[in-house]
Amino acid sequence: MEELGLQNIELIEADAEYVNFNDESFDVILCSTAIAYLNLSH
C-alpha cells in the first residue's frame, strides 16, 4: 500500500465467518465479491 502512497492501511486475510476483532476496530470494510461465497443460512 505504501507504493501507492496509502498509509494507515493494513490488509488482513481471514475467515469472514469467524472474525475476532474488537468493536469499533474499523473505519471501512470493503467486501466486493466475498458475500456470494458465505454460508448465510444462519
UniProtKB/TrEMBL annotation:
<dbReference type="Pfam" id="PF08241">
    <property type="entry name" value="Methyltransf_11"/>
</dbReference>
<feature type="domain" description="Methyltransferase type 11">
    <location>
        <begin position="6"/>
        <end position="38"/>
    </location>
</feature>
<keyword id="KW-0808">Transferase</keyword>
<dbReference type="GO" id="GO:0032259">
    <property type="term" value="P:methylation"/>
</dbReference>
<keyword id="KW-0489">Methyltransferase</keyword>
<dbReference type="InterPro" id="IPR029063">
    <property type="entry name" value="SAM-dependent_MTases_sf"/>
</dbReference>
<protein>
    <submittedName>
        <fullName>Methyltransferase domain-containing protein</fullName>
    </submittedName>
</protein>
<dbReference type="InterPro" id="IPR013216">
    <property type="entry name" value="Methyltransf_11"/>
</dbReference>
<dbReference type="GO" id="GO:0008757">
    <property type="term" value="F:S-adenosylmethionine-dependent methyltransferase activity"/>
</dbReference>
